[in-house]
Specification:
By secondary structure, the protein is of the alpha+beta class. It folds into three domains: 105 residues, PAS domain (Beta-Lactamase); 131 residues, PAS domain (Beta-Lactamase, 2-Layer Sandwich), CATH 3.30.450; 70 residues, no CATH class. The strands form four sheets. The chain has a six-stranded antiparallel beta sheet, sandwiched between helices. Strands 2-1-5-4-3 form a five-stranded antiparallel beta sheet. About 4% of the residues have low confidence.
């Protein structure tokens, strides 16, 4: 044992102490620990020597099933900043059940101050909008959770593993959301995603509560850009969005009922690459296609006639005219068509009508150019 103590005393970058398992009485501490905590003496309880990490005792979070992996982050003014505290079980002198506690400084004091100010500022902001904020160390699989109730009152702070949080969440998640949210299921996946430049991970899902009822929550994992710290750090923000989602469903149901009551075809549309239909009534689908179609069937049917979706490597040279005041086809749709033509190497000419709507009659000079090009196309390609 004497040689073992000499080895521990030779470790100058870590404070190490050993306590009897049942009473938490100190039975050994190395020289570095004695230098930093002069009050430490054999036969004293570790809780009697004035260590600031005792405010959040690492032994309370110790899990014997995670042998060799009980590592916690703590703030310690005694050790000059952020420290990594590891706990493990040993048999001291081959007969005394004990814990060996190792404390390794992680940052200089000023770095620690800035790091904590940054994290605390995040905590203060996100608690206004969240039910829980979790600091994540994705490299070491360590989490620290701050939990509030719906009245913005702080409830508790918990430590654990990152994987443990997401395993529990996936277990309680509705089956229809579980597969989609698999990117959240391990530290390794999230760390790899952020190390490749990923900005954040976000999703909405139904999670079962203790009462057996499912409620809507949103999850957002945001990496922290703290370059002085070698581990991959992130913050998980969990929000209860159940009320908003229920209102959305109710609004959608009311909207659909309104659509059915209005004579003729009605739809709401997102102006994007595919002019995506957000919602529509059955009459709209019938008017557009002459067929009885569902929303999904309509999307497939419309792809058959969309110019953008029809472009391929074998497409013929194309002449395009767009009116910037077109109320039928949004002007930015031309960008998607032109992009498809260029990607497939299809030659084209584009004439823009700045003062025209869908009929293109507001720019006579542009109409002349368009007609001249049309005749050129006829002579060149139709002979």
């Amino acid at each position: 044992m004497w040689n073992f103590e000499r080895v521990l005393d030779a470790i100058t970058n870590a404070g190490i102490y050993i306590i009897e398992k049942r009473s938490h009485t100190i039975i050994y501490c190395n020289k570095r620990f004695k230098e930093l905590v002069p009050a430490a003496e054999v036969s004293l309880g570790c809780y009697e020597i004035g260590m600031d990490i005792c405010n959040r005792c690492p032994l309370e979070s110790y899990d014997p099933a995670k042998k060799g992996k009980n590592v916690f982050l703590r703030e310690s003014h005694v050790f000059g900043g952020m420290v990594e505290v590891s706990v493990d079980e040993i048999l001291w002198e081959d007969k005394i059940p004990a814990y060996i506690v190792t404390i390794i400084p992680q940052m200089k004091a000023e770095e620690t101050k800035n790091y904590y100010l940054y994290n605390r500022s995040i905590d203060r902001v996100v608690k206004k909008i969240s039910v829980a904020t979790v600091s994540l160390n994705l490299t070491k699989n360590i989490s620290r959770s701050y939990i509030w109730n719906d009245k913005n009152q702080f409830l508790c702070e918990e430590e654990g593993s990152v994987d443990g949080i997401f395993v529990d969440m996936l277990r309680r998640m509705h089956s229809k959301d579980r597969e989609r949210c698999g990117r959240f299921d391990t530290c390794a996946k999230m760390e790899a995603y952020f190390n490749k430049g990923g900005k954040y991970l976000e999703d909405e899902m139904l999670i079962k509560g203790e009462d057996g009822r499912y409620r809507w929550f949103s999850l957002r994992v945001i990496p922290l850009e703290y370059t002085e710290y070698r581990d991959t750090l992130a913050v998980l923000v969990i929000r209860n969005i159940h009320t908003r989602k229920v209102l959305q469903v109710r609004t959608q149901n009311n909207l659909e009922a309104t659509y059915k009551a209005i004579p003729g075809g009605v739809c709401t549309m997102r102006v994007d690459k595919n002019l995506s239909i957000i919602s529509a009534n059955e009459e709209f689908y019938r008017m557009m296609t002459g067929k009885e179609l569902s929303a999904q069937e309509y999307r497939q049917e419309i792809k058959k006639i969309s110019p953008t979706c029809l472009v391929g490597e074998d497409s013929v040279p194309t002449l395009i005219g767009y009116g910037l005041k077109d109320h039928c086809v949004p002007a930015d749709q031309k960008e998607y068509l032109i992009d498809a033509l260029e990607k497939n190497g299809v030659s084209y000419d584009y004439v823009e009508f700045p003062h025209s709507n869908h009929l293109l009659y507001g720019d006579l000079d542009k109409m002349q150019t368009f007609m001249d090009l049309s005749l050129e196309y006829c002579e060149k390609y139709f002979q």
